[in-house]
Write a structure and sequence with these properties.
Helices cover 66% and strands 0% of the residues. The longest helix is centred in the N-terminal third of the chain and has 27 residues. The C terminus is likely disordered.
Amino acid sequence: MKRFLQHAAGIKVCARILDVAAALFRERGFAGIGVSDLMKAADGFRNLGQFVAAVNVSNNLDIPFTRLKTQMVEENLSLGQAIQKLKPTATATGNGAASSSA
């Protein structure tokens, strides 16, 4: 059972890496991405989860990944703080428009 759980965890990590690769492929095209590009993009994040979350937010909220990474890695902001700084009109639903109530 332990071996199965380790294998399942490994599959989840591989799936996350493939998601990130897919996002980079969409951004730069298939010819412009290699393993070294993925490693460079992930450099500086605290863990794989933080990196994957940043890639997802970049894609979903249309925030340039390099700007988001700079805020999180160099300015030491949380993902939420970086989002608010770079796209203050973003909402929890990710539609980019502030909600209003009458």
